[in-house]
Amino acid sequence: MYGHDFPGPDDGPADGLLEQVEAAEVALRAAADRGRPGVADGPAADTDPQHYFTALIEADQKIEPRDWMPDAYRKTLIRQIAQHAHSEIIGMQPEGNWISRAPSLGRKAILLAKVQDEAGHGLYLYAAAETLGVTRDELVELLLTGRQKYSSIFNYPTLGWADVGAIGWLVDGAAIVNQVPLCRCSYGPYARAMIRVCKEESFHQRQGYEILHRLASGTPAQRAMAQDAVDRWWYPSLAMFGPPDTDSTHSQQSMAWKIKRFSNDDLRQRFVDMCVQQAGVLDLRLPDPDLRWNEQRQAYDYTQPDYAELMRVISGDGPCNRQRIDHRRRAHADGSWVREAAAAYTAKRQREDRPAVAA
Ligand SMILES: [Fe+2]
Ligand SMILES: [Fe+2]
């Protein structure tokens, strides 16, 4: 099953998330070994850059920063990678809220590691975006002034400890379903960043699932907490896949460029199918009375999320939008002395003709 991190007895060995990520990594290396069109024994290089770009994409080769690319491809990637980076950084807040209130030292250490991973994901992604000719400062400015968005999901509040479990299971789970195909994205730096990110996301999903599993098999009060968190996070997680295909503005061109490999609705369906089985193991209910197996489609029928709500949250009117961006602005201002000190140190090393970081 796609993006399935808990293969059942009927699933083959290639169905787990990590197997899919590894397969993408092998494909990436194989493409590099095959050589690019016009190099070594590939077809002759075309002098028209647009033709060469198309030939690289058709040959499932990666576009690298040194390559010519259409302006719209570059802009699409900058927008997508930047929004992804912003989401990782803003996404630290809902869970960061629970680090000081985790129920044990072990839980605190795990959550701390998870939130720190998200910071790392943001950094890989800003670095990937920088290869397209923007600076991290520019992108951060676009986030702080509201001109670039981040995922709507992080504008919902974390009301209890069980929310940390529901976020790991559902939010990181939805992120995985979205991101595994990006390991095969046509832009090399993004694809390579995604391979590492997905390996870490697998751990995030498992930690959330394990929290819910413990709560769901605990006292009646703990079970109720787990169910309440799943009830609140289910539909916002479905909305993470974006508007339905009929309203999705960027999809077709992104598919042609092999940035995107599957439509929003396809990925959402895969996520639903994956979650139903996992909810069964947890013995928790997904809050959808119309969720049922459709024999003909070989998939679950389900209730769509409220897309009007998604649009409201994206445009700034979610429960925590203001709080999240205020917090990020404050954190950015508080960190200015670190950036200044790092820049001064680098300048000093350059004056002394030494590398910025000692070997
Ligand atoms: Fe992440
Ligand atoms: Fe994550």
TrEMBL record:
Its EC number is 1.14.13.149. Gene3D superfamilies: 1.20.1260.10. Coiled coil: none annotated. One of its GO terms (molecular function) is phenylacetyl-CoA 1,2-epoxidase activity. Pfam families: PaaA_PaaC. The keyword Oxidoreductase applies. SUPFAM superfamilies: Ferritin-like (SSF47240). The keyword Cell division does not apply. NCBIfam families: PA_CoA_Oxy1. InterPro entries: Aromatic_CoA_ox/epox (IPR052703), Ferritin-like (IPR012347), Ferritin-like_SF (IPR009078), PaaA (IPR011881), PaaA_PaaC (IPR007814). This is 1,2-phenylacetyl-CoA epoxidase subunit A. Keywords: Oxidoreductase. It comes from the Bacteria.
